Amino acid sequence: MTMMGPGEMARKLGGGLLSFPVTHFDADGVFQEAAYRAHCGWMLEHELSGLFAAGGTGEFFSLTPDEVTKVVAAAVGEANGRLPVISGCGYGTAIATGIARDVEKAGADGVLLLPPYLVGSSQQGLAAHIEAVCKATGLGVIVYNRDNAIVDDETLARLCDRNPNLVGFKDGVGDIELMTRVYARMGDRLTYIGGLPTAETFAMPYLT
Predict the structure, then answer these.
(1) 139: Cα within 13 Å, side-chain hemisphere
(2) Please, are residues 151 and 130 in contact by the beta-carbon 8 Å criterion?
(3) pLDDT tens-digit profile of 104-149?
């Protein structure tokens, strides 16, 4: 079980560089834990504020839920409490809530909630999905706005009111007007993470 609460996790993530290690597979698509841990160990030689295991860069959607847990457990073991480990989380609601519970048991400090797969997402549906994940775990949850799953500022504010462990917002869309509205409503209630190469350069939340 993690010893880092959602608020502490969010503060640490907002304090410096974040790392997104790729996940190592062999020619048959089997997770290679030793190589992955060695790579994480190399990253941890540098000053980092968080390690994102089995995320979008770590081939989350190429992993089964059981493999996600194995990857996260390996990252947790390598990090050894030195910094928060955030797990990728996603798919449909039932699978996402299961992943959140499993990685909490594996020692993760938070989850990065990736979009559901190829679903036209209403605000009501997205809110129900996000809230179900928040309620399934005591971990800090970071919502990832991307592709078909774009939560607006009003929905996000309502979710934050009801879910104290919703502590982060990652922008993978580049809608600067939306980011400005989110920050105007939420301010320091959330930790903001850039998910695009350059858009965050122009967004006020990343400059404060």
Answers:
(1) 32
(2) yes
(3) 999 999 999 998 876 778 999 999 999 999 999 999 999 999 888 8
